[in-house]
Amino acid sequence: MNTKIIQITERIAQRSKITRASFLRQIEGALEKEVSRNKVHCGNLAHAMAGCEQHDKSLLAENTAKNIGIITAYNDMLSAHKVYENYPDKLRNYAREFGATAQVAGAVPAMCDGVTQGQPGMELSLFSRDVIALSTAVGLSHGVFDGILCLGICDKIVPGLLMGALRFGHLPTVFVPGGPMPSGISNEEKARIRQDFAEGKIGRDELLKGESDSYHSPGTCTFYGTANSNQMLMEIMGLHLPGSSFVNPGTPLRDALNREAVKTVIKNAKLGLERAIGTILTEKVIVNGIIGLLATGGSTNHTIHLIAIARAAGIIINWDDMSDLSDVVPLLTRMYPNGAADVNHFHASGGMSFVMHTLLENGLLHEDVMTIIGKGLSAFTKEPFLQNGELVWRKGAKESLNTAIIRSVSDSFSKDGGIKILKGNIGRSVIKTAAVSDEHLIVEAPSIVFSEQEDLLVAFKKGELNKDFIAVLPFQGPKQNGMPELHQLTPTLTVLQKKGYKVALVTDGRMSGASGKVPAAIHLTPEAHDGGAIAKIRTGDILRLDAKKGELICLSDNFTDRTPISKANHATHYGRELFINPRKLVSSSEEGASFIL
């Protein structure tokens, strides 16, 4: 096992000693009270089973079988979640097959960042994660469940489900993925269409056709953004069945894996705390999740979400842990936006089983962890197949089937994981360097301060940005406006970079999981709303972003002496006014940007 990974894991455990012990006492106490429908008043139980079939009612009344609570994020507006439409009926039937019952305990909101990008609704996106955690807890609060099945895939949904499930950490929990849609047009073609539109070469009709040819059917979007990073995390953290993350929806193998997920949670419900979600999610498992994020070039959103997930389990991690792990974890994959391939190509080239094999083989993952299928992560180097209609696991690939997409540790794309921390007199921020070329890792240029991302787009269309500059977007942090993603900036800044200009971005907001080739110092803390130094920057200040040294500096002599500007937030529609109090309570981005933890 890599010595530095051991050291980082040990310092996390030491830092979390008190909070983790408190969490474990909590779940032990919850288990002692146990879930027993015999202890529920008859009136309570009658309500809980009134809508069930007679067979299920008998099992619930007798308290002789395990009852599994389903938390679903189904809606038919998200392509990734459309596949969950008929899951409850199927999962109930699988439960009956194994002598158990299953009920939909509750549903959680599931917004699509792809729909809300650049729109007012994006200001609710990050906060939706904590709402999902609260909704999960409400669904499970009925207290009549022995285990949990979580149906969720996309950006804030999986972290929210996991945070909520950890409040019931004494129960076994299995995440049930839906799988990616089949591949559409190539990611290179999609990127070209977006850039052509940004340059005014094509109109809206051509852009819409290109986008629709890419996002074309039920299933997860196929680029490697936050949604697919979620699936990777659930697998490498042992909360999915091995090899289940990227199996396409509507296939016999997908159905067989769903049946096995039900069988697994029922089995685990008979084992007490041994495979409970709170037991599984240890410091080692959190470190494995960070390593998976780094090795696959995953979404920067998880530099926030993983912190919140860990805190829900009493574990305290920070950006320094991630940056230090990045120094020793190599980049093993190239998926869009870090390459041309999509997750279907990744899966066919060896996928998660190969990634975990090469990491384990080189001592870069903790193998000695508990998972939903038992002790040890080595079982996750196997792949699922159907053999005469039965689900079996065979040894996965021991070498890459396409080295342009996935590589071994000894032949990595980069020696580090591509997520760094930038520090300086502007504050602390995250930068993803996995797709940034070496010549763009250092940018020193005058700043241009924009109030909103639309202002940058207007300036670009007027031809005012054909020069070296660092775009600064303050007042995009969680307390100000919910920390929206600034995804609209990516095509425009990429066009300018391709023209030969040195460009970069500095913001206390987020970029999408699709952030890519332009250096972007994001999640800056302290945020402008709190008087952070980003609110002191003025257009024309010379800034230096150095991703090699980990520096983010304003070089103006009087910078630190300035009074930060302020900005009112007048969010009065799209439901944003309902989140005034969460914006007051939310923690910083480095603390997980949560208003419930």
**Which whole number gives the mean pLDDT?**
93
Poorly predicted regions are none
C-alpha termini separation: 32 Å
Number of domains: 3
Strand content: 5-15%
Across the major sheet, the strand order is 9-10-14-13-12-11-15-16
Number of helices: 23
Number of strands: 16
Oligomer: single chain
By helix and strand content, what is the structural category?
alpha/beta
Instruction: Please give the share of residues in helix.
Output: 25-40%
Biggest pleated sheet: 8 strands, mixed
Radius of gyration, taken over Cα atoms and rounded to an integer in Å: 24 Å
Shape: globular
Report on the architecture of this protein:
By secondary structure, the chain is an alpha/beta fold. It has three domains: 3-33 and 65-182 and 217-395, no CATH class; 34-64, no CATH class; 419-591, 3-Layer(bba) Sandwich (Glucose Oxidase, domain 1), CATH 3.50.30. 38% of the residues lie in helices and 14% in strands. The protein has helices at residues 3-15, 17-33, 42-49, 54-62, 79-82, 87-97, 113-116, 125-140, 157-166, 187-198, 204-214, 226-236, 252-268, 277-280, 283-296, 302-312, 319-326, 343-348, 351-361, 453-461, 478-481, 489-498, 580-585, and strands spanning 67-72, 101-107, 147-151, 173-175, 370-371, 374-375, 382-387, 390-395, 419-424, 427-432, 442-449, 469-473, 503-507, 520-525, 542-546, 551-554. The strands form four sheets. Strands 9-10-14-13-12-11-15-16 form an eight-stranded mixed beta sheet, covered by helices on one side. The chain has a four-stranded parallel beta sheet with strand order 2-1-3-4, sandwiched between helices. A hairpin with a 2-residue loop joins strand 7 (382-387) and strand 8. Helix 6 (87-97) packs across helix 13, helix 9 (157-166) packs parallel to helix 16 (302-312) and helix 10 (187-198) packs across helix 22 (489-498). It is globular and about 75 Å long. The two termini are 32 Å apart.
